[in-house]
Amino acid sequence: MDHFVYQDGVLCAEDVSVAEIAAQVGTPFYLYSSATLLRHYRLFDEALAGMDHLVCFAMKSLSNQAILQLLGEAGAGMDVVSGGEYARARAAGVPGERIVFSGVGKTRVEMRQALTGGIRQFNVESEPEMEALSAVAVELGKIAPITIRVNPDVDAKTHAKIATGKSENKFGIPIARAREVYAHAARLPGIEVIGIDVHIGSQLTDLAPFEAAYLKVAELTEQLRADGHTIKRLDLGGGLGIPYVQSNEAPPSPLDYGAMIKRTVGHLGCEIEIEPGRLISGNAGVLVSRAIYVKDGADRQFLILDAAMNDLIRPAMYDAHHDIVPVVQPEAGAERATYDIVGPVCESGDTFAKGRAMAQVAPGDLVVFRSAGAYGAVMASEYNSRPLIPEVLVHNDQFAVIRARPTFDEMIARDIIPAWL
Ligand code: LLP
């Protein structure tokens, strides 16, 4: 459920008309609903009620400072994967004890940054990383709390580019070698093993792969405890999918997911962490764009928008489907048309949808891409020298620009002309 609904024939974000925001901010822009973000965070939090737990927002999905502060103030932790994300989380007021550091390639500089600034734990992904972290911690006179990410070799049944839990993926250590690697970790002076981490992929629409992975983690917990390790925390990753197409078949809810967690690992008495990104931010955001032209091709119509692949890369990169709907609600029985929906960027990959049937659109009309809150703005670029688009946050009947559109001069001023030119 989200808070983007038609009111009196115009799409609103909570209680604000999208058309009104577009008139003030200009298109294209990203638009987020505070109520939806908070609702989704709380659904996870409530789903784990009764267990000692922390919901760490995977901020790679949406990392604007205002969003981090909103979720941080509601109690969320953050899952970070770079020094930049760590700095953003801290700048938004999230305390170190609520930040977990994931990723296969943490540098010593990033380790130092997090150890000095405060960290809940590192999710370590390899033995070389473990050794580096131990050395950095010893240098600083600290002990780094860690979990080790295991790769359970489970097929997440999602898009190949976002599956992470098969043995051929670069993530984690093979679960079959876990006991050996934990024994190695126990011998290192700068780290303290506190648990196990697992994350098998993103946009999972079925609980079965999660369940298979969590059962393996439960079994491993018992083995490692028998080997004498302290396993008191399980980080179960993110990955629960969202409905990109409105249909009767909704993916499992956070509540179903929480119940499955209780069923698979609840008996172990561990503190539970999860790292959802998309389910919190995805349907809490839309991309608002304006039609520039409708053009007749040889055998099709092109709807040319002012948003492009540099603003929203998901269709080009993952063949992702985003519903595209008009801001002014079409009257019942209004004409429909079929379009290839494209942006102005100079390559054919700049296609949002092919043969999409929808209410007829005229040049100047506003449309929104639904479910664009996750992996939208954060994956944008300035390709074709198109400035990064603004982000706007709605709260009840108010809205605020939370990232402004840079001017051309600001964009150009980042380049430096060397003295010899
Ligand atoms: N934890 C870890 C260690 C991750 O690698 C990820 C996502 C998450 C949590 C959050 O997963 P989520 O709950 O958002 O599914 N750009 C792609 C998605 C990449 C996901 C990468 N890792 C997309 O647009 O679909």
From TrEMBL:
The protein's Enzyme Commission number: 4.1.1.20
Record: residues binding substrate: 278, 314, 318, 347, 375
Gene3D superfamilies: Alanine racemase, Lyase, Ornithine Decarboxylase, Chain A, domain 1
InterPro entries named among the record's database cross-references: Ala_racemase/Decarboxylase_C, DAP_deCOOHase_LysA, De-COase2_C, De-COase2_CS, De-COase2_N, De-COase2_pyr-phos_BS, Orn/DAP/Arg_de-COase, PLP-binding_barrel
Catalytic activity: meso-2,6-diaminopimelate + H(+) = L-lysine + CO2
Cofactor(s) named in the record: pyridoxal 5'-phosphate
Molecular functions (GO terms): diaminopimelate decarboxylase activity; pyridoxal phosphate binding
Limits of the Orn/DAP/Arg decarboxylase 2 C-terminal domain: 30-373
Modified residues (N6-(pyridoxal phosphate)lysine): 60
Active-site residues from the entry: 346 (proton donor)
Residues annotated as domain Orn/DAP/Arg decarboxylase 2 N-terminal: 36-281
Metabolic or biological pathway, per its Swiss-Prot or TrEMBL entry: Amino-acid biosynthesis; L-lysine biosynthesis via DAP pathway; L-lysine from DL-2,6-diaminopimelate: step 1/1
Binding site for pyridoxal 5'-phosphate: 239, 275-278, 375
Keywords: Amino-acid biosynthesis, Decarboxylase, Lyase, Lysine biosynthesis, Pyridoxal phosphate
Primary enzyme class: lyase
Gene Ontology terms: biological process: lysine biosynthetic process via diaminopimelate
Pfam family of the protein (one): Orn_Arg_deC_N
Family to which this protein belongs: Belongs to the Orn/Lys/Arg decarboxylase class-II family. LysA subfamily.
Subunit structure: Homodimer.
Physiological role: Specifically catalyzes the decarboxylation of meso-diaminopimelate (meso-DAP) to L-lysine.
Protein name: Diaminopimelate decarboxylase
Lineage: Bacteria, Pseudomonadati, Pseudomonadota, Alphaproteobacteria, Rhodobacterales
Gene transcribed to yield this protein: lysA
